[in-house]
Design goal:
about 65% helix, mainly alpha, elongated
Amino acid sequence: MRESISAGLESREEALSYALQYGRGLDARLADRFVGMYVNRLTEDYGDEGREAVAELLGRGEEIGAFEQPVRVEFVP
């Protein structure tokens, strides 16, 4: 995933142009904003803070019974 995100960041205009084919009428400005929420340097490598956030989210889900079993995540470098 990291390589895919990196490629998108390096060729943002080309990647956006491609993605807009599947945007169901979404205008370029809004698509750029939407994509920017998910394709950025933080999603490329979210580090310790991001790992802690994922653990927190899953822990909260467990607390409210969102999962039948505890969820364990293994982060691959």
